[in-house]
Structure formats: C-alpha cells, structure tokens
C-alpha cells in the first residue's frame, strides 16, 4: 500500500509540474538533448529564395533549408511582414531590396539633385527610396535615414512645404496614437517617431515615420519655417 501511495504522489507531482515546465520553456521528457521545443519552420522555397539568402548572409543555393526558413522568418517577424512564415515572397524581397537601395545612398543621398540646394536648411524626403535627410545648401547636415511614409490610399503628398507646427508630445486625434516629436509640414502630415520598425509594410497614414533617435535629431535641427521637399513614389503605392 505504501508503494502504491508513493507512486501516486509522484504521478500527481509530475502532472502539476508539467504546465510550469512548458511555461518556462523546459523540454518535456524525451526531448532530444533537452532542447526547447519550437514549432518547425516548414515554409517551402520562395520565388526570391536566392535573393533572401544573399541578403541575410546565408549560403546561396536557392533551396530552402531549416536555417534559411528560420532566418527569413526572424527577419519577417522583426519588420512585421505577414505572414511571418519564412517564405521568401515578393513582399519580403521588396523590403530587403529597399534596404539595399538605402544603403547604396551612402553619404551622398542627393547625388541626383532632386532636393533643392538653394533653400538653405531643408529636410528632404525621397519617397522612392524611403529616405530622408537634412541639408544646408550642398552640405549634408544629418542622415540619410530610413523612413516609413504613407501607404496606398494615404500617400505622403509631394512638393515643397514648410514646417508650420511642432508638438513634442502630440497624440493623434484621428487614430489616438502617440506621435512623439511631431513636426507638421502639410495638413496632418508630419515627421514623428514610431515604436516599430520603419520598414514595416504597408506604411503610415501619410506621416513620415522615423526611429526615436532620428525623430529627436530632426526636432533639434528643424524649426518652424524650415522647408521640406518631398518627391518620388513609395514602392507599393
């Protein structure tokens, strides 16, 4: 009888402990090597497999492996690309290709002269490359930095504008979301920081989203009356 009671107590303890073990990520009994159990990454080979492998520094063979799938899925998760399944589809490659073009801008983003050099201090916004920078004449003052502009149907309007109102702790009256370091330059469109990836599709509701670091620097450098030049077309709009 004592032996039966001991076995019963041991079984009860195991049952009670199982949820706790799963909650903290411990592997159930029998898991190989005691590794944490995770859902298998099973996405197939996508049409942009080779490009994604090259971008992520993986062996480029155009064939999906478990490591490839997990790396692609991690990239998708970080930048809010859905579904985040590890499949190298058109949207994932569009974000990667955009990053490549942004890096290629180097320290001379106004190489093609699209942003006016006769306006003194001016904030430049290239929608095509999703890049922004501040220049004074031909001198680069800050940037270039990646930005997230208006999605299809909410495009950031092009043209020459001016910063006309600034609010460091602004909250959107339309979407009820914080817009720190807001600097408005065209109606409800403004530079402001976001607490998410600036590469996350599909885009903003017209504002120029920036990282907190870059939005703070723009706040320090710009003033009411400073001009803003916006041109190009955001990919996907």
From TrEMBL:
Pathway: Cell wall biogenesis; peptidoglycan biosynthesis. It comes from the Bacteria. PROSITE patterns: LD_TPASE. Residues 120-231 form the L,D-TPase catalytic domain. SUPFAM superfamilies: L,D-transpeptidase catalytic domain-like. Residues 1-31 form the signal peptide. Keywords: Cell shape, Cell wall biogenesis/degradation, Peptidoglycan synthesis, Signal, Transferase. CDD domains: YkuD_like. The keyword Ion transport does not apply. The keyword Transferase applies. The active site is at 192 (proton donor/acceptor), 207 (nucleophile). PANTHER family: EXPORTED PROTEIN (PTHR30582:SF33), L,D-TRANSPEPTIDASE (PTHR30582). This is L,D-transpeptidase family protein.
């Amino acid at each position: 009888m004592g032996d039966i009671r001991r076995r019963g107590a041991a079984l009860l303890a195991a049952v009670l402990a199982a949820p706790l073990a799963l909650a903290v990520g411990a592997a159930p009994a029998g898991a190989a090597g005691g590794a944490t159990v995770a859902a298998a990454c099973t996405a197939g080979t996508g049409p942009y497999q080779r490009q994604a492998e090259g971008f992520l520094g993986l062996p480029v063979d155009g064939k999906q492996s478990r490591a490839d799938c997990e790396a692609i899925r991690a990239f998708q998760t970080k930048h809010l690309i859905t579904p985040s399944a590890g499949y190298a589809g058109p949207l994932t490659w569009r974000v990667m290709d955009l990053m490549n073009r942004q890096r290629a801008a180097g320290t001379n983003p106004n190489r093609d002269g699209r942003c006016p050099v006769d306006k003194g201090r001016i904030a430049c916004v290239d929608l095509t490359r999703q890049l922004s920078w501040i220049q004074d004449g031909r001198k680069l003052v800050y940037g270039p930095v990646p930005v997230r502009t208006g999605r299809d149907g909410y495009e950031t309007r092009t043209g020459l504008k001016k910063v006309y109102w600034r609010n460091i702790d602004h909250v959107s009256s339309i979407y009820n979301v914080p817009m720190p370091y807001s600097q408005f330059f065209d109606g409800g469109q403004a530079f402001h920081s976001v607490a998410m990836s600036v590469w996350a599709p599909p885009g903003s509701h017209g504002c120029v989203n920036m990282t907190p670091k870059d939005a703070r620097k723009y706040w320090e450098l710009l003033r009411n009356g400073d001009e803003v030049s916006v041109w190009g077309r955001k990919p996907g709009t």
